[in-house]
Amino acid sequence: MRRRVVLVDDHELFLAGVRAELADSVDVVGEAASVAEAVPLIKELDPDVVLLDVHLEDGGGDAIINAIAPERPGVRFLALSVSDAAEDVIGVIRAGARGYVTKTISAADLADAVERVASGDAVFSPRLAGFVLDAFRAGERVGGDAELDELTKREREVLQLIARGYMYKEIAARLHISVKTVESHVSSVLRKLQLSSRHELTRWATQHRLV
Amino acid sequence: MSLRSFAPSADGRVLAGVCAGIAEALAVDVTLVRLIFALLALAGGAGIVLYIALWLYAKSGAWWTWVLLFAAGCAVLSGLGLPKRAVVGIALVGIGLLIAWRRGGGFRPGAPLSWGGTLVAAAGALLLLQSGGAGSGALAPVAVAAALLMIAGPWLWQLGPDRIRLEERAEVAAPVHDSVLQTLALIQRHADEPRRVAALARRQERELRGWLYGERPLGDRSSLVGALSAAAADVEELYGIRVEISNAGDYPADEPLVLAAREAMTNAAKFAGVEEIDVYAEVTADEVVVFVRDRGRGFDRAAVAADRRGLVESIEGRLERAGGSATITSGPGRGTEVELRLPRRRT
User: Fold this and answer.
1) Is residue B69 within 8 Å of residue B46, measured between CB atoms?
2) Is B215 in CB contact (< 8 Å) with chain A?
3) N- to C-terminal Cα separation, chain B
4) Which residue among A114, B112, B253, B261 is least crowded, i.e. fewest CB within 10 A of its CB?
5) Prediction pTM value
6) Are B200 and B186 in contact (CB under 8 A)?
7) ipTM reported for the complex surpasses 0.85
8) B217 touches chain A (CB under 8 A)
9) Is A210 touching B (CB cutoff 8 A)?
10) Is the dihedral of CA A72, A76, A81, A83 positive or negative?
11) Which residue has the higher pLDDT, A101 or B116?
12) B249: left (phi over 0), alpha (psi -120 to 50) or beta
Protein backbone atom coordinates (compact mmCIF):
# COMPACT_ATOMS: atom_id res chain seq x y z
CA MET A 1 0.00 0.00 0.00
CA ARG A 2 1.34 3.39 -0.92
CA ARG A 3 1.86 5.75 1.98
CA ARG A 4 -0.16 8.96 2.11
CA VAL A 5 2.15 11.91 2.71
CA VAL A 6 1.64 15.63 3.42
CA LEU A 7 4.51 18.02 2.67
CA VAL A 8 4.97 21.16 4.74
CA ASP A 9 7.60 23.58 3.50
CA ASP A 10 7.61 27.28 2.68
CA HIS A 11 10.07 26.84 -0.17
CA GLU A 12 8.04 26.34 -3.30
CA LEU A 13 10.96 25.17 -5.42
CA PHE A 14 11.96 22.66 -2.84
CA LEU A 15 8.40 21.46 -2.40
CA ALA A 16 8.10 20.85 -6.13
CA GLY A 17 11.38 18.95 -6.14
CA VAL A 18 10.37 16.65 -3.28
CA ARG A 19 6.95 16.05 -4.82
CA ALA A 20 8.56 14.97 -8.09
CA GLU A 21 11.14 12.78 -6.33
CA LEU A 22 8.56 10.99 -4.20
CA ALA A 23 5.95 10.62 -6.96
CA ASP A 24 6.99 7.04 -7.75
CA SER A 25 6.95 5.72 -4.22
CA VAL A 26 4.29 7.55 -2.20
CA ASP A 27 1.05 9.51 -2.65
CA VAL A 28 1.57 13.16 -1.88
CA VAL A 29 -1.97 14.01 -0.81
CA GLY A 30 -1.47 17.56 0.37
CA GLU A 31 0.93 20.47 0.70
CA ALA A 32 1.14 23.43 3.05
CA ALA A 33 3.51 26.34 3.40
CA SER A 34 2.77 27.52 6.94
CA VAL A 35 1.72 26.33 10.38
CA ALA A 36 -1.72 27.94 9.93
CA GLU A 37 -2.28 26.10 6.66
CA ALA A 38 -0.78 22.82 7.75
CA VAL A 39 -2.72 22.15 10.97
CA PRO A 40 -6.28 22.02 9.52
CA LEU A 41 -5.01 20.30 6.37
CA ILE A 42 -3.32 17.48 8.30
CA LYS A 43 -6.37 17.05 10.54
CA GLU A 44 -8.56 16.79 7.48
CA LEU A 45 -6.37 14.43 5.46
CA ASP A 46 -5.09 12.26 8.31
CA PRO A 47 -1.97 11.14 6.36
CA ASP A 48 0.49 8.40 7.33
CA VAL A 49 3.48 10.71 7.32
CA VAL A 50 4.02 14.47 7.44
CA LEU A 51 7.33 15.64 6.00
CA LEU A 52 7.97 18.99 7.59
CA ASP A 53 10.50 21.76 7.58
CA VAL A 54 11.95 22.85 10.90
CA HIS A 55 11.41 26.54 10.12
CA LEU A 56 8.24 28.06 8.69
CA GLU A 57 7.26 31.68 8.36
CA ASP A 58 4.74 31.60 11.21
CA GLY A 59 6.47 29.18 13.56
CA GLY A 60 8.48 26.03 13.89
CA GLY A 61 7.72 22.48 12.82
CA ASP A 62 7.31 21.67 16.51
CA ALA A 63 4.21 23.93 16.62
CA ILE A 64 2.52 21.72 14.02
CA ILE A 65 3.45 18.55 15.86
CA ASN A 66 2.15 19.95 19.16
CA ALA A 67 -1.14 20.91 17.52
CA ILE A 68 -1.69 17.57 15.77
CA ALA A 69 -0.16 14.85 17.91
CA PRO A 70 -2.72 14.76 20.77
CA GLU A 71 -5.64 14.38 18.32
CA ARG A 72 -4.02 12.25 15.66
CA PRO A 73 -1.59 9.86 17.32
CA GLY A 74 -1.39 7.82 14.10
CA VAL A 75 0.24 10.62 12.10
CA ARG A 76 4.04 10.32 12.03
CA PHE A 77 6.34 13.26 11.50
CA LEU A 78 9.69 13.33 9.75
CA ALA A 79 11.71 16.55 9.88
CA LEU A 80 13.40 17.55 6.67
CA SER A 81 15.50 20.64 6.93
CA VAL A 82 18.49 22.64 5.82
CA SER A 83 18.87 23.89 9.36
CA ASP A 84 21.91 22.64 11.17
CA ALA A 85 21.12 24.49 14.35
CA ALA A 86 21.26 21.75 16.92
CA GLU A 87 18.56 23.36 19.07
CA ASP A 88 16.14 23.37 16.09
CA VAL A 89 16.79 19.74 15.28
CA ILE A 90 16.62 18.53 18.87
CA GLY A 91 13.56 20.76 19.41
CA VAL A 92 11.53 19.18 16.62
CA ILE A 93 12.51 15.68 17.72
CA ARG A 94 11.55 16.43 21.30
CA ALA A 95 8.19 17.70 20.06
CA GLY A 96 7.61 14.22 18.63
CA ALA A 97 9.14 13.88 15.15
CA ARG A 98 10.25 10.31 14.41
CA GLY A 99 13.42 11.40 12.71
CA TYR A 100 15.43 14.08 10.98
CA VAL A 101 17.03 14.08 7.56
CA THR A 102 18.81 16.89 5.73
CA LYS A 103 17.50 18.33 2.49
CA THR A 104 20.49 17.04 0.57
CA ILE A 105 19.24 13.46 1.06
CA SER A 106 18.85 11.44 -2.16
CA ALA A 107 15.38 10.63 -3.50
CA ALA A 108 15.74 6.90 -2.80
CA ASP A 109 16.92 7.49 0.77
CA LEU A 110 14.06 9.91 1.38
CA ALA A 111 11.47 7.42 0.13
CA ASP A 112 13.05 4.79 2.33
CA ALA A 113 12.99 7.15 5.34
CA VAL A 114 9.27 7.90 4.78
CA GLU A 115 8.51 4.18 4.65
CA ARG A 116 10.46 3.50 7.82
CA VAL A 117 8.81 6.33 9.74
CA ALA A 118 5.38 5.19 8.49
CA SER A 119 6.01 1.69 9.84
CA GLY A 120 6.87 3.09 13.25
CA ASP A 121 10.66 3.18 13.14
CA ALA A 122 12.90 6.10 13.88
CA VAL A 123 15.13 7.61 11.21
CA PHE A 124 18.41 9.07 12.29
CA SER A 125 20.66 10.75 9.76
CA PRO A 126 24.38 10.59 10.56
CA ARG A 127 24.21 14.24 11.53
CA LEU A 128 21.37 13.71 13.99
CA ALA A 129 23.23 10.75 15.47
CA GLY A 130 26.21 13.06 16.03
CA PHE A 131 24.01 15.66 17.73
CA VAL A 132 22.46 13.05 20.00
CA LEU A 133 25.80 11.54 21.00
CA ASP A 134 26.94 15.04 21.84
CA ALA A 135 23.80 15.74 23.87
CA PHE A 136 24.15 12.52 25.85
CA ARG A 137 27.87 12.89 26.38
CA ALA A 138 28.94 10.62 29.22
CA GLY A 139 29.56 11.96 32.68
CA GLU A 140 27.58 15.18 32.42
CA ARG A 141 24.34 14.04 33.94
CA VAL A 142 22.80 16.27 36.60
CA GLY A 143 19.87 14.82 38.53
CA GLY A 144 16.87 13.44 36.69
CA ASP A 145 15.97 9.91 35.78
CA ALA A 146 19.07 7.79 35.19
CA GLU A 147 17.28 5.36 32.90
CA LEU A 148 16.10 8.18 30.64
CA ASP A 149 19.13 10.38 30.97
CA GLU A 150 21.81 8.02 29.81
CA LEU A 151 22.38 5.95 26.73
CA THR A 152 23.38 2.34 27.16
CA LYS A 153 26.71 1.19 25.78
CA ARG A 154 24.88 -0.60 22.95
CA GLU A 155 22.80 2.44 22.07
CA ARG A 156 25.96 4.48 21.96
CA GLU A 157 27.60 1.94 19.66
CA VAL A 158 24.60 1.91 17.34
CA LEU A 159 24.46 5.70 17.20
CA GLN A 160 28.17 5.95 16.55
CA LEU A 161 27.87 3.54 13.64
CA ILE A 162 24.96 5.55 12.22
CA ALA A 163 27.08 8.70 12.51
CA ARG A 164 29.89 6.87 10.70
CA GLY A 165 27.53 6.23 7.81
CA TYR A 166 26.50 2.60 8.44
CA MET A 167 23.05 1.43 7.41
CA TYR A 168 20.90 -0.58 9.81
CA LYS A 169 21.69 -3.92 8.20
CA GLU A 170 25.41 -3.16 8.18
CA ILE A 171 25.19 -2.23 11.86
CA ALA A 172 23.34 -5.47 12.57
CA ALA A 173 26.03 -7.52 10.82
CA ARG A 174 28.81 -5.71 12.57
CA LEU A 175 27.36 -6.02 16.06
CA HIS A 176 26.05 -9.55 15.43
CA ILE A 177 22.48 -8.57 16.22
CA SER A 178 19.32 -8.52 14.10
CA VAL A 179 18.10 -5.51 12.15
CA LYS A 180 15.01 -5.52 14.41
CA THR A 181 17.27 -5.13 17.44
CA VAL A 182 19.08 -2.21 15.79
CA GLU A 183 15.70 -0.61 15.15
CA SER A 184 14.63 -1.09 18.75
CA HIS A 185 17.85 0.51 19.99
CA VAL A 186 17.23 3.53 17.78
CA SER A 187 13.61 3.79 18.91
CA SER A 188 14.77 3.63 22.50
CA VAL A 189 17.24 6.47 21.89
CA LEU A 190 14.44 8.47 20.30
CA ARG A 191 12.26 7.88 23.35
CA LYS A 192 15.02 9.02 25.69
CA LEU A 193 15.61 12.07 23.55
CA GLN A 194 11.92 12.96 23.79
CA LEU A 195 11.36 12.18 27.46
CA SER A 196 14.63 12.93 29.18
CA SER A 197 14.63 16.02 31.33
CA ARG A 198 18.38 16.01 31.16
CA HIS A 199 19.13 19.67 31.29
CA GLU A 200 22.03 19.41 28.88
CA LEU A 201 19.52 18.75 26.13
CA THR A 202 18.33 22.30 26.34
CA ARG A 203 21.64 23.76 27.33
CA TRP A 204 24.15 21.85 25.30
CA ALA A 205 23.37 23.48 21.99
CA THR A 206 24.97 26.70 23.10
CA GLN A 207 28.18 25.05 24.17
CA HIS A 208 28.54 22.05 21.88
CA ARG A 209 31.12 23.58 19.60
CA LEU A 210 34.30 23.28 21.63
CA VAL A 211 34.72 20.94 24.54
CA MET B 1 47.86 50.45 29.84
CA SER B 2 44.55 49.98 31.53
CA LEU B 3 43.33 50.74 34.99
CA ARG B 4 40.43 48.39 34.32
CA SER B 5 42.72 45.46 34.89
CA PHE B 6 43.97 47.03 38.08
CA ALA B 7 44.05 44.67 41.02
CA PRO B 8 45.92 44.90 44.30
CA SER B 9 49.25 43.20 43.81
CA ALA B 10 50.46 40.58 46.22
CA ASP B 11 54.05 40.96 45.00
CA GLY B 12 55.95 43.77 46.61
CA ARG B 13 53.04 45.05 48.62
CA VAL B 14 53.52 47.10 51.77
CA LEU B 15 49.93 47.63 52.88
CA ALA B 16 47.15 46.16 50.74
CA GLY B 17 49.17 46.26 47.54
CA VAL B 18 47.17 49.08 45.94
CA CYS B 19 50.23 51.11 44.93
CA ALA B 20 51.97 48.03 43.57
CA GLY B 21 48.81 47.12 41.66
CA ILE B 22 48.54 50.55 40.08
CA ALA B 23 52.22 50.54 39.22
CA GLU B 24 51.77 47.15 37.55
CA ALA B 25 48.67 48.18 35.60
CA LEU B 26 50.25 51.42 34.38
CA ALA B 27 53.73 49.92 34.02
CA VAL B 28 55.37 52.65 36.07
CA ASP B 29 57.76 52.53 39.00
CA VAL B 30 56.03 51.65 42.26
CA THR B 31 58.13 54.17 44.20
CA LEU B 32 56.66 56.98 42.10
CA VAL B 33 53.10 55.84 42.83
CA ARG B 34 53.89 55.58 46.54
CA LEU B 35 55.41 59.05 46.52
CA ILE B 36 52.27 60.52 44.94
CA PHE B 37 50.04 58.78 47.47
CA ALA B 38 52.26 60.01 50.33
CA LEU B 39 52.02 63.60 49.06
CA LEU B 40 48.25 63.25 48.63
CA ALA B 41 48.00 61.89 52.16
CA LEU B 42 49.60 65.11 53.36
CA ALA B 43 46.86 67.10 51.59
CA GLY B 44 44.35 66.81 54.41
CA GLY B 45 44.51 63.00 54.45
CA ALA B 46 42.93 62.75 50.98
CA GLY B 47 45.53 60.21 49.83
CA ILE B 48 44.52 57.84 52.63
CA VAL B 49 40.84 58.08 51.70
CA LEU B 50 41.72 57.50 48.04
CA TYR B 51 43.87 54.50 48.95
CA ILE B 52 41.07 52.86 50.92
CA ALA B 53 38.52 53.70 48.21
CA LEU B 54 40.70 52.14 45.52
CA TRP B 55 41.25 49.04 47.61
CA LEU B 56 37.51 48.59 48.24
CA TYR B 57 36.76 49.24 44.58
CA ALA B 58 39.21 46.59 43.45
CA LYS B 59 37.97 44.13 46.08
CA SER B 60 34.23 44.32 45.36
CA GLY B 61 33.61 46.60 42.38
CA ALA B 62 30.07 47.26 43.72
CA TRP B 63 28.34 50.49 42.78
CA TRP B 64 28.95 52.11 46.16
CA THR B 65 32.70 51.71 45.76
CA TRP B 66 32.36 53.95 42.72
CA VAL B 67 30.68 56.58 44.89
CA LEU B 68 33.40 56.19 47.48
CA LEU B 69 36.08 56.48 44.85
CA PHE B 70 34.41 59.59 43.58
CA ALA B 71 34.19 61.15 47.00
CA ALA B 72 37.86 60.34 47.54
CA GLY B 73 38.72 62.05 44.26
CA CYS B 74 36.84 65.16 45.40
CA ALA B 75 38.63 65.06 48.74
CA VAL B 76 41.95 64.95 46.89
CA LEU B 77 41.03 67.95 44.74
CA SER B 78 39.85 69.83 47.77
CA GLY B 79 43.01 68.89 49.63
CA LEU B 80 45.05 70.25 46.73
CA GLY B 81 43.58 73.66 47.50
CA LEU B 82 40.90 73.99 44.81
CA PRO B 83 38.00 76.28 45.73
CA LYS B 84 34.81 74.50 46.81
CA ARG B 85 32.85 75.72 43.81
CA ALA B 86 35.41 74.22 41.42
CA VAL B 87 35.42 70.87 43.24
CA VAL B 88 31.62 70.70 43.12
CA GLY B 89 31.75 71.68 39.43
CA ILE B 90 34.24 68.96 38.61
CA ALA B 91 32.22 66.47 40.65
CA LEU B 92 29.06 67.34 38.73
CA VAL B 93 30.85 66.99 35.38
CA GLY B 94 32.16 63.61 36.50
CA ILE B 95 28.75 62.41 37.73
CA GLY B 96 27.13 63.66 34.53
CA LEU B 97 29.64 61.82 32.35
CA LEU B 98 29.16 58.69 34.43
CA ILE B 99 25.36 58.83 34.07
CA ALA B 100 25.70 59.49 30.35
CA TRP B 101 28.07 56.54 30.04
CA ARG B 102 25.99 54.04 32.04
CA ARG B 103 22.57 55.11 30.78
CA GLY B 104 23.47 55.99 27.23
CA GLY B 105 25.33 52.73 26.58
CA GLY B 106 28.82 54.20 26.56
CA PHE B 107 30.38 56.91 24.43
CA ARG B 108 30.76 54.76 21.36
CA PRO B 109 29.70 56.32 18.08
CA GLY B 110 25.96 56.19 17.57
CA ALA B 111 25.08 55.38 21.18
CA PRO B 112 21.90 57.07 22.38
CA LEU B 113 22.49 60.30 24.26
CA SER B 114 21.54 60.51 27.93
CA TRP B 115 19.96 63.93 28.42
CA GLY B 116 20.00 63.72 32.20
CA GLY B 117 23.73 63.01 32.27
CA THR B 118 24.42 65.72 29.76
CA LEU B 119 22.47 68.32 31.76
CA VAL B 120 24.26 67.44 35.00
CA ALA B 121 27.63 67.64 33.26
CA ALA B 122 26.74 70.96 31.66
CA ALA B 123 25.67 72.39 35.03
CA GLY B 124 28.95 71.26 36.53
CA ALA B 125 30.87 72.87 33.69
CA LEU B 126 29.04 76.19 34.25
CA LEU B 127 29.81 76.10 37.94
CA LEU B 128 33.43 75.37 37.16
CA LEU B 129 33.64 78.29 34.74
CA GLN B 130 32.16 80.62 37.32
CA SER B 131 34.43 79.48 40.13
CA GLY B 132 37.43 81.15 38.50
CA GLY B 133 39.64 80.32 41.44
CA ALA B 134 43.32 79.57 41.31
CA GLY B 135 44.15 76.18 39.84
CA SER B 136 40.76 75.74 38.17
CA GLY B 137 41.97 77.87 35.26
CA ALA B 138 43.36 74.88 33.40
CA LEU B 139 40.63 72.41 34.35
CA ALA B 140 37.57 74.51 33.54
CA PRO B 141 38.00 74.65 29.74
CA VAL B 142 38.65 70.89 29.61
CA ALA B 143 35.49 70.11 31.57
CA VAL B 144 33.42 72.48 29.46
CA ALA B 145 34.82 70.95 26.28
CA ALA B 146 33.96 67.43 27.49
CA ALA B 147 30.38 68.44 28.28
CA LEU B 148 30.01 70.15 24.91
CA LEU B 149 31.41 67.13 23.09
CA MET B 150 28.85 64.89 24.75
CA ILE B 151 26.02 67.06 23.55
CA ALA B 152 27.40 67.75 20.09
CA GLY B 153 29.13 64.42 19.56
CA PRO B 154 26.26 62.46 18.04
CA TRP B 155 25.51 65.28 15.61
CA LEU B 156 29.14 65.77 14.72
CA TRP B 157 29.59 62.06 14.05
CA GLN B 158 26.27 61.83 12.23
CA LEU B 159 25.79 58.44 13.75
CA GLY B 160 22.12 57.74 14.00
CA PRO B 161 20.43 54.33 13.74
CA ASP B 162 20.96 54.47 9.97
CA ARG B 163 24.69 54.47 10.41
CA ILE B 164 24.48 51.48 12.78
CA ARG B 165 22.36 49.59 10.28
CA LEU B 166 24.91 50.36 7.58
CA GLU B 167 27.71 49.12 9.77
CA GLU B 168 25.85 45.92 10.55
CA ARG B 169 25.16 45.40 6.88
CA ALA B 170 28.83 45.94 6.08
CA GLU B 171 29.73 43.34 8.69
CA VAL B 172 27.53 40.77 6.97
CA ALA B 173 28.34 41.94 3.46
CA ALA B 174 32.09 41.44 3.71
CA PRO B 175 32.11 37.68 4.38
CA VAL B 176 29.14 37.11 2.07
CA HIS B 177 30.89 38.99 -0.69
CA ASP B 178 34.11 37.07 -0.21
CA SER B 179 32.42 33.70 -0.34
CA VAL B 180 28.80 33.50 -1.45
CA LEU B 181 28.88 36.09 -4.21
CA GLN B 182 32.18 34.76 -5.54
CA THR B 183 30.74 31.27 -5.64
CA LEU B 184 27.59 32.42 -7.43
CA ALA B 185 29.75 34.16 -10.02
CA LEU B 186 31.80 30.98 -10.46
CA ILE B 187 28.65 28.90 -10.83
CA GLN B 188 27.42 31.16 -13.63
CA ARG B 189 30.72 30.84 -15.43
CA HIS B 190 30.73 27.05 -15.15
CA ALA B 191 27.04 26.57 -15.85
CA ASP B 192 27.79 23.90 -18.47
CA GLU B 193 29.75 21.71 -16.03
CA PRO B 194 27.13 20.18 -13.74
CA ARG B 195 29.65 18.35 -11.59
CA ARG B 196 31.63 21.47 -10.94
CA VAL B 197 28.49 23.47 -10.20
CA ALA B 198 27.24 20.86 -7.73
CA ALA B 199 30.60 20.79 -5.95
CA LEU B 200 30.78 24.58 -5.76
CA ALA B 201 27.24 24.79 -4.41
CA ARG B 202 27.97 22.14 -1.80
CA ARG B 203 31.13 23.82 -0.62
CA GLN B 204 29.28 27.09 -0.24
CA GLU B 205 26.33 25.48 1.46
CA ARG B 206 28.58 23.85 4.00
CA GLU B 207 30.46 27.08 4.72
CA LEU B 208 27.25 29.03 5.09
CA ARG B 209 25.82 26.41 7.46
CA GLY B 210 28.97 26.52 9.55
CA TRP B 211 28.68 30.29 9.72
CA LEU B 212 24.96 30.44 10.47
CA TYR B 213 24.59 27.49 12.81
CA GLY B 214 28.06 26.50 13.93
CA GLU B 215 29.32 30.04 14.44
CA ARG B 216 32.39 29.26 12.41
CA PRO B 217 33.73 32.11 10.29
CA LEU B 218 33.18 31.63 6.56
CA GLY B 219 36.12 29.67 5.20
CA ASP B 220 37.18 28.66 8.72
CA ARG B 221 39.90 26.04 8.92
CA SER B 222 40.92 26.51 12.50
CA SER B 223 38.38 24.14 14.03
CA LEU B 224 38.43 20.41 13.28
CA VAL B 225 34.97 20.42 11.70
CA GLY B 226 35.78 23.57 9.73
CA ALA B 227 39.01 22.07 8.44
CA LEU B 228 37.39 18.71 7.62
CA SER B 229 34.61 20.54 5.75
CA ALA B 230 37.14 22.48 3.71
CA ALA B 231 39.08 19.30 2.93
CA ALA B 232 35.84 17.54 1.98
CA ALA B 233 34.94 20.40 -0.35
CA ASP B 234 38.34 20.13 -2.05
CA VAL B 235 37.89 16.39 -2.57
CA GLU B 236 34.34 16.91 -3.85
CA GLU B 237 35.55 19.44 -6.39
CA LEU B 238 38.45 17.31 -7.57
CA TYR B 239 36.62 14.00 -7.89
CA GLY B 240 32.94 14.91 -8.27
CA ILE B 241 31.69 12.84 -5.34
CA ARG B 242 29.76 13.76 -2.19
CA VAL B 243 31.22 13.80 1.28
CA GLU B 244 28.81 13.82 4.24
CA ILE B 245 30.28 15.18 7.45
CA SER B 246 28.79 14.57 10.89
CA ASN B 247 30.26 15.35 14.25
CA ALA B 248 29.79 15.15 17.98
CA GLY B 249 31.72 18.05 19.45
CA ASP B 250 34.45 20.10 17.86
CA TYR B 251 38.06 20.87 18.71
CA PRO B 252 40.86 23.10 17.43
CA ALA B 253 42.12 21.49 14.22
CA ASP B 254 45.16 19.23 14.40
CA GLU B 255 47.03 19.38 11.13
CA PRO B 256 48.17 15.73 10.95
CA LEU B 257 44.64 14.54 11.70
CA VAL B 258 43.07 16.77 9.04
CA LEU B 259 45.70 15.86 6.45
CA ALA B 260 45.31 12.16 7.14
CA ALA B 261 41.52 12.46 6.90
CA ARG B 262 41.88 14.31 3.63
CA GLU B 263 44.20 11.59 2.35
CA ALA B 264 41.63 8.97 3.33
CA MET B 265 38.85 10.89 1.54
CA THR B 266 41.01 11.25 -1.56
CA ASN B 267 41.78 7.53 -1.51
CA ALA B 268 38.12 6.67 -1.26
CA ALA B 269 37.23 9.11 -4.03
CA LYS B 270 39.89 7.71 -6.35
CA PHE B 271 39.66 3.98 -5.76
CA ALA B 272 36.39 3.01 -4.07
CA GLY B 273 34.16 3.76 -7.06
CA VAL B 274 31.39 5.29 -4.95
CA GLU B 275 29.27 8.42 -5.14
CA GLU B 276 29.37 9.22 -1.46
CA ILE B 277 31.80 9.10 1.46
CA ASP B 278 30.85 9.47 5.13
CA VAL B 279 33.09 11.32 7.55
CA TYR B 280 32.38 11.40 11.27
CA ALA B 281 34.40 13.29 13.89
CA GLU B 282 33.95 12.71 17.60
CA VAL B 283 35.62 14.53 20.45
CA THR B 284 35.72 12.49 23.65
CA ALA B 285 37.15 13.38 27.04
CA ASP B 286 40.66 12.36 26.05
CA GLU B 287 40.89 11.93 22.31
CA VAL B 288 39.69 13.08 18.93
CA VAL B 289 38.51 10.37 16.53
CA VAL B 290 37.77 10.73 12.83
CA PHE B 291 36.18 7.98 10.72
CA VAL B 292 36.27 8.08 6.93
CA ARG B 293 34.06 5.45 5.39
CA ASP B 294 33.03 4.34 1.93
CA ARG B 295 30.81 1.51 0.79
CA GLY B 296 32.99 0.86 -2.26
CA ARG B 297 34.99 -1.97 -3.69
CA GLY B 298 37.53 -2.18 -0.88
CA PHE B 299 40.93 -3.80 -1.18
CA ASP B 300 43.08 -6.56 0.16
CA ARG B 301 45.85 -5.05 2.15
CA ALA B 302 48.34 -7.81 1.29
CA ALA B 303 47.75 -7.51 -2.44
CA VAL B 304 47.73 -3.75 -2.69
CA ALA B 305 49.80 -2.01 -5.36
CA ALA B 306 52.98 -0.30 -4.27
CA ASP B 307 51.78 3.21 -5.12
CA ARG B 308 48.70 2.77 -2.97
CA ARG B 309 50.67 1.29 -0.14
CA GLY B 310 52.45 4.64 -0.04
CA LEU B 311 49.20 6.41 0.57
CA VAL B 312 48.18 3.94 3.25
CA GLU B 313 51.49 4.38 4.97
CA SER B 314 51.28 8.13 4.74
CA ILE B 315 48.02 8.01 6.68
CA GLU B 316 49.33 5.60 9.31
CA GLY B 317 52.78 7.17 9.51
CA ARG B 318 51.43 10.67 9.84
CA LEU B 319 49.18 9.77 12.77
CA GLU B 320 51.85 7.74 14.53
CA ARG B 321 54.35 10.59 14.29
CA ALA B 322 51.74 12.87 15.85
CA GLY B 323 51.26 10.44 18.74
CA GLY B 324 48.03 8.89 17.51
CA SER B 325 47.03 5.84 15.55
CA ALA B 326 45.31 4.92 12.29
CA THR B 327 43.41 1.73 11.59
CA ILE B 328 42.36 0.79 8.09
CA THR B 329 39.64 -1.83 7.77
CA SER B 330 38.93 -3.07 4.28
CA GLY B 331 38.25 -6.12 2.20
CA PRO B 332 37.36 -6.72 -1.43
CA GLY B 333 33.69 -5.76 -1.91
CA ARG B 334 33.25 -4.71 1.71
CA GLY B 335 34.13 -1.05 1.50
CA THR B 336 36.82 0.69 3.48
CA GLU B 337 36.87 2.48 6.78
CA VAL B 338 39.79 4.53 8.05
CA GLU B 339 39.78 5.25 11.77
CA LEU B 340 42.07 8.05 12.94
CA ARG B 341 42.72 8.61 16.62
CA LEU B 342 44.70 11.39 18.24
CA PRO B 343 44.97 12.15 21.97
CA ARG B 344 43.72 15.60 22.95
CA ARG B 345 46.43 18.10 23.57
CA ARG B 346 46.93 19.24 27.10
CA THR B 347 46.16 22.90 27.51
Assistant:
1) no
2) yes
3) 28
4) B112
5) 0.62
6) yes
7) no
8) no
9) yes
10) positive
11) A101
12) left
